[in-house]
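Worked example 3 (structure in, sequence out).
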């Protein structure tokens, strides 16, 4: 589309789950608005998984940054990654377009939910805004982005 554009001008890091050894339980990003981008890409990564560990991830939608009316986005969950079936050191992607949300009922905020069960798993995840609507994507990066080279 824009062969002269830098990747950092087309992708924003909107929210992250920083790399770590996640104990069994649920972790989620904060709510982000999808109104500033033409799409969203969730990237889920696993490292070492303890014996029996499983990792699930899905996108949820809400009406505001407080999570009002939170519900799953239909069809936006990964197939479970498991230690028993070579789920360690893998990546999974979830694509989302704004029109896949319940926009008629005011749902324009999204978060990523990662669930680890049975045993600990090394995980990380990012929500990336794709193709900004108005400005360079760099302007929408979360505050934790330390450098763009």
């Amino acid at each position: 589309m824009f062969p002269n554009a830098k990747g950092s001008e087309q992708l924003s890091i909107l929210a992250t789950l920083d790399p770590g050894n996640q104990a069994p339980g649920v972790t989620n990003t904060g709510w982000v608005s999808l109104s500033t981008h033409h799409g969203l890409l969730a990237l889920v990564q696993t490292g070492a998984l303890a014996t029996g560990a499983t990792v699930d991830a899905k996108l949820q939608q809400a009406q505001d940054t407080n999570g009002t009316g939170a519900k799953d986005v239909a069809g936006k969950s990964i197939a479970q990654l498991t230690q028993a079936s070579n789920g360690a050191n893998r990546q999974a992607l979830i694509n989302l377009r704004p029109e896949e949300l319940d926009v008629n009922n005011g749902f324009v905020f999204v978060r990523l939910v990662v669930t680890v069960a049975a045993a600990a798993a090394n995980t990380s995840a990012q929500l990336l805004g794709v193709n900004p609507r108005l400005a360079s994507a760099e302007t929408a990066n979360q505050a934790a982005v330390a450098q763009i080279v």
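Notes: The mean pLDDT is 94. The radius of gyration is 16 Å.
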